[in-house]
Amino acid sequence: MTGPGEVERMVEALLFAAAEPLSAQELQRRLPEGADVGRALAGLRARYAGRGVELECVADRWRFQTAADLGYLMIEEREEPRRLSRAALETLAVIAYHQPVTRAEVESVRGVQLSRGTLDLLLEIGFVRMRGRRRTPGRPVTYGTTDAFLEHYGLAGLADLPGAADMRTAGLLDLDLPADFTVPDPSRTEADEDPLEPGDDAEFHRDFLTDDQS
Amino acid sequence: MTGPGEVERMVEALLFAAAEPLSAQELQRRLPEGADVGRALAGLRARYAGRGVELECVADRWRFQTAADLGYLMIEEREEPRRLSRAALETLAVIAYHQPVTRAEVESVRGVQLSRGTLDLLLEIGFVRMRGRRRTPGRPVTYGTTDAFLEHYGLAGLADLPGAADMRTAGLLDLDLPADFTVPDPSRTEADEDPLEPGDDAEFHRDFLTDDQS
Amino acid sequence: MSGFQPVLDFEAADEAAETGDALVVDVDGYEGPLHVLLALARTQKVDLLRISILKLAEQYLGFVHAARRERFSLAADYLVMASWLAYLKSRLLLPKPEKDAKDEPPAEVMAAALAFRLKKLDAMRNAVEALQSRARFGLEVFGRGDPEAVTVVPSNQVRSTLHELLQAYVGERRRESGRRYQPAPVEAYALDDARERLRSLLPELESWTPLRGVAPQGRPSGPPRASLLASTFSASLELVKEGGLEARQLDAFEDVYLRARRQRATT
Lengths: 214, 214, 267
What we know:
The complex is a heterotrimer, with two copies of chain A (214 residues) and one copy of chain C (267 residues). By secondary structure, chain A is an alpha+beta fold. Chain A has helices at residues 4-17, 24-30, 37-48, 86-98, 103-110, 116-124, 147-152, 164-169, 200-213, and strands at 22-23, 53-58, 61-66, 75-78, 82-83, 101-102, 128-134, 141-145, 193-195.
């Protein structure tokens, strides 16, 4: 005959190793005949009361659970930096070299529609900002890079963005590019742009919605 | 200031919740400053001794696990055991007890060439890893065991390998035993190993290929 | 026998040792000659370091002989070991020469080294058993079945290098330059064909018929409808000029009607 202390040990082990909460019936089935599950559960509940882990009964099923007041320990700020997706990296590159640039222009260079999340992400991590509005019909918002962008890539200014010659030296440019391949110099200022006005932000989000519908 | 009882609760909660064993350092990082992790671990170990769940140190990290004598209850949780051949197990033992050890040395101890797939399998299931290179002509790759190996066999460290101390005293773990049966020289240096360099992996696989052709 | 449990083919040797019978020859059960030697040595029931190498050599040679009689194909390793042991045996038996051959240790030292090597392999065999009898994770002991996933709050840090950025840009521009506007060439309804067809239709065009009815119906693979209409219209104007056809349009943008010019009107 299995003593009550021994049954308690068994229930403890079973509940610990189980992939999901177990009912008293399920426990009974996995224990030696005649084992008093109810008594074991009561004993364990008392034993774990006030500990870092507690025995909980949810919907007639039993499980060990971290004490509620220690839940904050289970949240971890992960230091691991994110990698930018290919789409994000390409969009960032086009914005960096072609700024100030409208959403439509980015799409025209990349040849694909800009997904909503890509630009949002770049705005969110602070590498891209809204710069102003193009003085063309519809007055589209123009985008550019931020100081955080320069800082991240170790650039003193936009003039330090590597040009075509640098790219060639680095072996990035090869022969299948046209001979007249040039890279725009984003450090020159363009005049066909108005500064953003207060409230432009909201309008921008409306832009997004209509873009998506089209 | 967090009292010792409270720290013990926290460590208990963290170890219960964790999917992997946690080192004292990892625990420390998640606890309030000044928390005495060592004391909490010792307290928990004593508290859980003889229970259905026990606190164990494996590969220098800590985990709760079910008591060994209750393993028979965990039929549903039991993993399909990996089928390792006797040759694979013996190779694993030779590597574990003699590391860092080269393939040729493993073969010399066992008196037979490693059959194709034996070492690969041990590397693939993650019990064995390439450790470095022996500073001898040809700079052969040396092998050792992993934390996964220690975790599987419930060993706190290599010093806990069963019988290792006695074997070492008896000179049974010496490797300076050439194939031509000369008397072993019990003085064995362990420092004659270079760390692996990037790209060594590929070279290793070339090794394998040439081995297979022979 | 389940899982990690090694197939202990030494059982045969142990049994033989207990019963005093000769070892059952089963080459498949052994990894190599050293493993056979170890199994044989264990039948001597003494510390491996104190076994009789002479007796071991005889046992091994008997094993190889038996295996050959049973027509087992023994690997070369086994035969090399056999000849080495035969040589060692002869050296152990023969009276000591005045001096050993050059660069060769005394036979007793070689025998001791072999015994030590067997001891070493035996230690590893015991190690396997000791490891396998431990409470193994996932087999005898178990971890938390339902770990509480730690909620990971990702930081806003980004990992990206300037080189990556440049690669992305160049890749982008390369694709852009590779994109050229290439409209599919439009298949046109040749004017000659239209003229030919209209001429053949003339006898049937006795009453005014709208141009869109006269022009051939478009097919998905052929020229577009616009081209069929335009070429038919151009051909009809030519035939009007030749005098074979009449055309009329009641008002601007209205349908154009065609009919064959009456023969008697021309004569």
